[in-house]
Design a protein that fits this description.
The protein has two helices and no strands. By secondary structure, the chain is mainly alpha-helical. The longest helix is centred in the N-terminal third of the chain and has 53 residues.
């Protein structure tokens, strides 16, 4: 049997079109992947930049800055040296209650909703 030349050309044309479509699809996927990578990199850089701006805008509190504001020059120079014990402010310790809680035999009352 012989192959019809017009059919062979049609088959070749279809094969060529399929190959071109596959090449175009692959090129598009590569472009999308590149755009995605650049977008992610840009977002990471912008996030870092915004974090630095926020850190500079809201510096927080420093323990050393509050201690630096108290100067020893505020005490009078004519005082005589005396021995004093430093006073520290401590939180009071927890104490036992004077009486233990008593249990009751009442039924709990719960209401929800209502109009």
């Amino acid at each position: 049997m012989s192959v019809d030349p017009s059919r062979a050309r049609a088959s070749t044309a279809v094969g060529t079109a399929v190959r071109r479509a596959a090449v175009a699809r692959d090129a598009g996927l590569r472009r999308i992947a590149a755009v995605t990578r650049w977008t992610v990199a840009a977002i990471v850089v912008l996030t870092g930049a915004l974090a630095l701006i926020a850190a500079k805008a809201f510096p927080g509190h420093s323990v050393s800055s509050t201690r630096a504001s108290v100067t020893p020059a505020s005490t009078p120079a004519t005082t005589t040296p005396t021995t004093t014990t430093p006073t520290t402010t401590t939180t009071p310790e927890l104490q036992q209650p004077a009486q233990a809680p008593a249990s009751t035999q009442q039924a709990p009352v719960a209401t929800s909703g209502g109009s």
